[in-house]
Design brief:
Layout lengths: L5 H18 L9 H21 L5 E2 L6 E2 L3 E2 L26 E2 L74 E2 L18 E2 L3 H20 L1
Parallel strand pairs: 5-6
Antiparallel strand pairs: 1-2, 3-4
Amino acid sequence: MVNCCPRARAALGPIFALAVSVRTSGRPRSALVLPTALLALLLGSAISLASSSAFAASYQQFDGFTTIDPIQSVSGGNHPYSGNDLEPGADLSSADLNLADLFKASLFEANLTSANLSGAYLYSADLDSAILTGADLTGATLVIANLSGANLSLADLTDAVLAGSVGLETSVGAALYSVGTNFEDTGFDPVAAGWTLVPEPSAALLLGFGLSALAVRRTNR
């Protein structure tokens, strides 16, 4: 059989088995016309199924027993991510998990360097000792997530919801946050931790106008 992933083999296996059965039945060649046409139809359907789901990824929940396969999107339906499965210690650097539903995901010691997790639903996720250096977590939901020992250097937590999350005080590195980042019930002080406050777009725009006006004024002198 074609060398492919387990999901593709599962989808295509019965079709190949049918092909072998038909071709070795010993019937005259003319008798194979209809079965061959049917085989082509079935094969086309199987390939379509394989292309849509064979490469989808899964994630493991921290109970150690539940696997969500495939990953779902917070907006409904299967998430398009097709890289490594999400599990403890997985290499997920630069993974595009924008708007992924990762409820109770087990990502202990996972490498999520520069991953796109913007808008992701990480409610009660286990990110203990995970590497989130440079990760995009803007607008992500991290309610009661475990961030103990996580590396958050330059992770962007603008407008993220961290309410009730634990372990922030033991996290490593200075992350980015905004006035919209929710630290409720964490007891965490981003200022004391040396995190960088990202100015609101309106404030940054006003600052830009001010600097431009100042430059024009100096030029006209």
